[in-house]
Amino acid sequence: MSTATMERFSVSRTLHLARWNTVLLVRNRLALSYALVFPLVPLPMLLLGDRGSSTLGISAIGGVLLLAGLFPVFYNVLSQFVSRRDELVLKRMRTGETKDGELLAGIALPGILCALLTCAVAVPIAIAGGQMVPVNILLFALGAVLATVMFAAFAYWTAAWTRSAEAAQLTSLPVIVLASVGPFVGGLPALSENVREAISLTPGAAMTELVRVGWFGFDGFEATTSTLSFAETWGLAGQPLLVMLVWTVIALDLARRSMRWEPRA
């Protein structure tokens, strides 16, 4: 990116747009509840089984991370972008000083902050529910940040073929299924090693693996005891972090190639 391009990007305009989108999100109580409350729904699982069970902990905490990416970020950004595109808001704003990157960041930031807030709140709740203190809380935080960026990229990619905000209920399904197959299917013991390896390359499976490694310090899929130190978790986190990064780059590239700023004919 050139210096001139960097100079054209205005942080102040981006934050102004983000504040404006935050106000709209707060006014929509249903969307706000989906953003702040729904991602925490998996946490009561910690009280339904054996207190301190790592299996329940991985499912619950991984579920929070997944839902925080899907609802405050992916679905919220998708519906907001498509709605503003259909109302010609984006077209009008692009005729002024506002740059494309500022528009995209301004739409995504409120959902990203909501997602990171729910992930932060989940930490003390999970510990109070009997789960161990995270071995590497920085790795968990890094995974949460990367997940939000990844799902924002997925949202802008999906917006390319979404005709209306109502249609987003259907067009969002491929990404939701792609993200959910790992956590819901990847843990089945009957899966062959080849199938498990393939599933590990999906976004949701990578996020779950980050929880296993970063929070619980587990070394391998079948591990049930924390054996990794803080430093060792960084080494094993390389693959899931790379998987999430690759998906982010793919989604951003596809979004860039297919982005539509005006309503579809």
TrEMBL record:
* InterPro entries according to UniProt: ABC-2_transporter, ABC2_TM
List the GO cellular component terms.
Answer: membrane
**UniProt KW Transmembrane helix keyword:** yes
User: Transmembrane ranges?
Assistant: 30-48, 60-82, 103-127, 133-158, 170-191, 236-255
Instruction: State the compartments where it is located.
Output: Membrane
Whether Cytoplasm counts among this entry's keywords is no
Q: Name one GO molecular function term.
A: ABC-type transporter activity
At the top level, the lineage of the source is: Bacteria
Query: What is the name of the protein in this document?
Result: ABC transporter permease
